[in-house]
UniProtKB/TrEMBL annotation:
CDD domains: AdoMet_MTases. The lineage of its organism: Bacteria, Bacillati, Chloroflexota, Anaerolineae, Anaerolineales. Residues 45-141 form the Methyltransferase type domain. The keyword Methyltransferase applies. InterPro entries: CFA/CMAS, Methyltransf_11, SAM-dependent_MTases_sf. SUPFAM superfamilies: S-adenosyl-L-methionine-dependent methyltransferases. The keyword Mitochondrion does not apply. It comes from Anaerolinea thermophila. GO terms for biological process: lipid metabolic process; methylation. Keywords: Lipid metabolism, Methyltransferase, S-adenosyl-L-methionine, Transferase. This is Methyltransferase, putative.
Length: 212
């Protein structure tokens, strides 16, 4: 397991400079608006919540929100945004592969543009943590970077291991980006019920909703 303290997270400096990095909710949220009541969701963890766009979005609908992220500046931005919306959420500074929550703490976990930021062994550990803190029959909604051998996106990046790239410039310089094959996705979700599986319009990500 990579040591959390040694992890490079370019998003921290980005949130410090501009706390409103992400404002509009992901388009899958309208589908989740319909699904969550059907699955009796009340407690939601936003894993890698960043500056809190989904904490605010679902908090406005009355869900009990918890956000975790490796970036202190991201959490501070989320806290300030929620205050202006008269909302509260528990926020935790935590690496996604060691979550400071008891088992069965959540009815749903959402995670957008986050889980790919690790080496594959650490991603496997993250899925164990997700499984631990999500209650039986709870929902996981996430997106994952898609492996695309034709893509030019990581042509200047360093290959850290098969399908994991480390950009050498930009906000995400030094951060691993694992690109998932469909086989890996189904291995990681072995034993889960897949409710929704899509490649997004941008073709760069899988969007997945699965039930534990
Ligand atoms: C592209 S941003 C997305 C933020 C948010 N999920 C959203 O959709 O607005 C990626 C986020 O992942 C967080 N992150 C990166 N590595 C992480 C780790 N190991 N554990 C927890 N969060 C991490 C970053 O701090 C950043 O907030």
């Amino acid at each position: 397991m990579q040591n959390s303290k040694k992890k490079i997270n370019g998003w921290d400096a980005a949130y410090k400079e501009n706390p409103q990095q992400f404002v509009e909710p992901d388009r899958i949220c309208t589908l989740l608006d319909n699904l969550f009541p059907k699955y009796h969701v009340e407690r939601i963890l936003d894993l890698g919540c960043g500056n809190g766009r989904h904490l605010v979005y679902f908090g406005k609908s009355g869900y009990q929100m918890v956000g975790s992220d490796l970036s202190g500046w991201g959490l501070q931005a989320a806290q300030k945004w929620m205050q202006t919306e008269n909302q509260t959420a528990r926020l935790a500074l935590a690496d996604m592969q060691a979550l400071p929550f008891a088992k069965d703490s959540f009815d749903a976990i959402i995670s957008f543009r986050v889980i790919q930021h690790n080496l594959y062994a650490d991603i496997q550990q993250t899925f164990q943590e997700i499984r631990r803190v999500l209650r039986s029959e709870g929902l996981l909604a996430m997106d994952l970077l898609r492996y695309d051998p034709e893509s030019e996106r990581f042509k200047d990046a360093v290959l850290a291991e098969p399908h994991t790239y480390i950009p050498q410039s930009g906000t995400e310089e030094g951060m691993p980006h694992h690109t998932f094959t469909t086989t890996e996705v189904f291995q990681l979700l072995h034993g889960w019920k897949i409710k929704f599986f899509d490649t997004q319009a941008d073709q760069k990500h899988f969007t997945i909703i699965a039930q534990k």
